[in-house]
Amino acid sequence: MHGPIDNDIEEHPLRYKENGIDETEISGILSTHFNTESETPSPGVRSKKLSFPDSDATPAPDYGISPDKESMELTPLSGDDSMNEKHGLKQQTDDVEEDSPYEVVRHSVSNKDDPSMYSLTFRVWLLGIIFTGVLSFVNQFFFYRQNQLSLGGSVVQLLAFPAGYVLSRVLPTRKFTTFGWVWTLNPGPFNIKEHVLISIFATASSGSPYAIDVVTIKKIWYKSDLGFVASLLFILTSQIMGYSFAGLARKFLVYPAAMIWPASLISVTLFRTFHEIQDFGGKMSRTKMFWICFIGSFLWYFVPNFLIPALSYIALLCYMAPNNVIANQLGDSYNGLGILNFTLDWSTISSNMG
Description:
Layout: H1 4-11, H2 13-18, H3 23-33, E1 35-38, E2 48-51, H4 79-95, H5 103-108, H6 122-141, H7 153-170, E3 175-178, E4 181-184, H8 192-204, H9 211-220, H10 228-248, H11 250-253, H12 262-275, E5 279-280, E6 284-285, H13 286-307, E7 314-315, H14 316-320, H15 325-331, E8 341-342, H16 346-351
Antiparallel strand pairs: 1-2, 3-4, 5-6, 7-8
Helix pairs in contact: 6-7, 6-8, 7-8, 7-12
C-alpha cells in the first residue's frame, strides 16, 4: 500500500542520497513513527504498509502528487492545540442538555435557564422576609390549637405573584451604588426566579420544627424549662442539621435528572403557569385554565360546607340501612369505621392526607 512518502522515495531517490540519507535510514525513521505490518506482497507494491497506532485516522490516500522536501517535515501537535481540542470536547459535552427520563417531569420542569434573568433583588428580600415572618408566626400560633390552621407554600405562590407585580409597577427605577456595587429597587418586570426565591424563603420556615415538641412537652408535662436561649439553640441545631444532610445528599438526590420529586411538580407547574405563555390542550392558555379552576373550586367550597353539608360525608351503608345498628357503626363517618364513605368536599380529602 503506497503512501505519499513512498512515492517520493521511489521517484526521487537521488534527492535523499545527496543529503546523506539512504533507504535503510529512511526505513528506520519511518519505523520509529509508524508501525509496519507485513502483508502478502503483490507485483509493483512494496511489502510494507503503514498503520497509525492509537488513532482512528486512516493514512492519506495516494493522489500521485509528490511533495517537496519542506512539505515532508512532520509538525507535532503543540500543547496549546491539544488543550484547545480537549476544551472543545468538554464544551461540546457541557452543551448537551440533561433532561429527565420521565415524561411527566419533562412536561412540568424546563431544563433551560436564562443567565441574564435577575434573581436576588430588593423585591425578593422584602417580600421573602414578610411572608416568612407571617407564615412562621401563624403556623406556630395555631400549632397548639385543636383545630389547627396551616398556611403552606401554595399560599405564598398565589400571593407573591400579584405582590411582586405591584412592586414592579410602583418602585422607582433609580440606581444606587454601594461599595462599588450598582443596584436598584426595581430592575424590571417580576420574573419567575424572584417568584421561586420568595416561595423558598417562606416555605423553609412555614412548618413547625420537630424540636418544638421537646421544648413544649418538657415545660408543660415535666415542669422543666430549658430557657429561651437554650431552647432557641436546640431548635436551630436540629433545623441546621437537617439542612446539612440535605446539602450532602444534593449530588445524589437533587442534581441527577433521573431523580423525581412528585410533590415539587405541582409547584413548578404553577410557577410556569404564571410566568410562561403556553397553550393548554391547544385551546386555552395555562393561566386561563388556572383561573377557571381557581374560581370554580372557590365557589364549590361553599356548597358542601354551608349549603349542603351532607356532601362532605356520603355514608352509603347508613343510607342503605338507616335502622341497622351494625351498618351504622360500620359506615358512620364520625362515630364509625367509615366503610364505603365518599365525599365531594376537597377540604375533607386534604385534611385527612398524611
